[in-house]
């Protein structure tokens, strides 16, 4: 079976991301005008926010297959990880991250686009995969995430 190409993954990811909104039509309309679309957290995922300059290394520490969507804003020095709904409790002790409450709007470009300084470092792919908070916490920590011994 052939892997989907970049455009197909972006299209599937955009469909999933828009469907995470209460008004997918407004998300698509914003993207058609090359604007960021506000998508509220809480129905499908939460947002863990960190400083781009100091948290970018965590991205490299997490294998791609374990990463959910990650959005960056270069000008604002922000990085946002889409995490499962129960992540706030699991990430409560990770001082370097702020888990935004349900209802907080993340202003998103579509996959494969850069709009107003925002771009997906790990694009939504339509699968609904999110970053496991335990893996994210380990990647943020001083030693970084390590694969379990039996997985290497």
Structure description:
30% of the residues lie in helices and 21% in strands. By secondary structure, the chain is an alpha+beta fold. A 5-stranded antiparallel sheet has the order 5-2-4-3-7. It has a two-stranded antiparallel ribbon with strand order 1-6. A hairpin with a 4-residue loop joins strand 3 and strand 4 (78-83). The radius of gyration is 15 Å and the shape is globular. Mean pLDDT is 89; it is low at 143-147.
- Annotation, overall tally of beta strands: 7
Shape: globular
Number of helices: 5
**Overall pLDDT confidence:** 89
Largest sheet composition = 5 strands, antiparallel
Q: Report how far apart the termini are.
A: 26 Å
Q: Look at the helices and sheets and give the structural class.
A: alpha+beta
Order of H and E elements: HHEEHEEHEEEH
The unreliable regions are: 143-147
Share of residues in helices: 25-40%
**Reading side by side through the largest sheet, how are the strands ordered?**
5-2-4-3-7
Q: What descriptive keywords fit this protein?
A:
single chain, two-stranded antiparallel sheet, five-stranded antiparallel beta sheet, 30% helix, alpha+beta, 7 strands, 5 helices, 152 residues
């Amino acid at each position: 079976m052939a892997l989907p190409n970049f455009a197909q993954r972006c299209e599937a990811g955009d469909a999933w991301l828009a469907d995470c909104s209460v008004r997918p039509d407004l998300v698509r309309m914003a993207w058609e005008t090359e604007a960021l679309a506000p998508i509220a957290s809480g129905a499908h995922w939460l947002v863990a926010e960190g400083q781009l300059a100091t948290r970018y290394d965590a991205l490299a520490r997490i294998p791609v297959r374990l990463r959910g969507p990650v959005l960056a804003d270069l000008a604002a020095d922000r990085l946002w990880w889409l995490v499962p709904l129960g992540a706030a409790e699991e990430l409560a002790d990770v001082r370097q991250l702020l888990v935004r409450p349900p209802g907080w709007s993340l202003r998103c470009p579509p996959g494969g686009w850069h709009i107003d300084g925002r771009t997906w470092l790990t694009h939504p792919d339509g699968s609904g995969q999110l970053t496991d908070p335990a893996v994210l916490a380990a990647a943020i920590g001083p030693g970084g995430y390590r694969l379990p011994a039996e997985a290497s």
